[in-house]
Amino acid sequence: MRIIRFIAAALVAVLVAAPAGVRAQGTQSPPPEEIMRRVQQAFFYAGQDFAAKVGMRLVDKSGHERRRTLSMLRLNAKEGHNQKYYMYFHAPADVRATAFLVWKYPDKDDDRWLFIPAIKLVTRIAAKDNQSSFVGSDFTYEDISGRDLGADDYKLLREEAMAGRDCYVVESNPKAASAFSRKVSWIDKTSFLPVKEEYYDVQSDLSRVFTADEVKETKGHPTAVRRTMKNLKTGHYTEVVFENVDYDAGLEDGLFSERSLQTPPAKWIR
Q: Which of 107-111's residues contact partners 24+ apart within 8 Å by CB, and which partners?
């Protein structure tokens, strides 16, 4: 009888434990590659198009600051991951009417053009400098338009709270030579926006820190409308504020042309 009762108890234990095992499996964290894919979609590809007025505040270690204001437009390709970006500078006076156009390709070098109003010249510029400074800020071109997912290997380090949000902590390691040796990202589990990112240089020292300081939702898309990038080596930092944010605004492909560099689309440059 004891044997029968033991077997019966064991069967009950298995039957009760099975659903719990299914639930536990269902709550497992996604693979790090999937987490970063969703980050890219939420941070760089939200909506079919995007428009905003952008204010930049560049502050050096002495507290001296410079300001820049620009309009930014972005259009996703209907298929694939190609994108087009258009940026028009309103201020300061020495860069007013300067315009920048990027056709972004995940699998090859981008096409880039710059309009210099002082000499009324459109010039094509090199596209192999994705990790150089974007218009003198602490952000790189890659920070603005995104990094190819295939450029890095990923590892889920842990899960923890950051800035009041439950986060996945993912380490990115470049497969080829890069300006950083590794990056650690705190990813909001709900929005899949990066809450914080730490960039380590080739000496493995912490060199730059990104934070999403304010997030607002527009047309169902959570957006980091206030962002800061700090350069710990120089003491310089850049704060970026997005205003008049709009998604799926109806931007047309023709806006992203050399013609628009010289003749800005008045409807969208505000």
A: 107/148, 110/145
Question: What are the φ and ψ backbone dihedral angles of 21, each rounded to 5 degrees?
Answer: -65, -40
Residues recorded for the chain: 270
Contact 160, 207 (CB under 8 A): no
Q: Please give the CATH architecture assigned to the domain spanning 36-262.
A: Clam (2.50)
> What is the helix, strand, coil percentage profile of the chain, to 5?
20, 45, 35
pLDDT in tens, 161-194: 999 999 999 999 999 989 899 999 999 999 999 9
> φ and ψ at 177, to 5 degrees?
-55, 135
Interatomic CA distance for residues 128 and 141, integer angstroms: 10
**Cβ density class 78-98: b for 16+ within 10 Å, e for less:** eeebebbbbbbbbeeeebebb
Tell me which DSSP letter residue 141 carries. H
Residue 56, pLDDT above cutoff 80: yes
pLDDT at 125: 81
- Please state, in angstroms and rounded to a whole number, the distance separating the CA atoms of residues 113 and 259: 11
Q: Could you state, in order of their start, the residue ranges of all structural domains in the chain?
A: 36-262
Q: If you average pLDDT over residues 132-157, what whole number do you get?
A: 91
Cβ atoms 9, 1 nearer than 8 A: no
SS3 221: strand
Task: For residues 261 and 264, give the distance between their C-alpha atoms in angstroms, rounded to a whole number.
Answer: 6
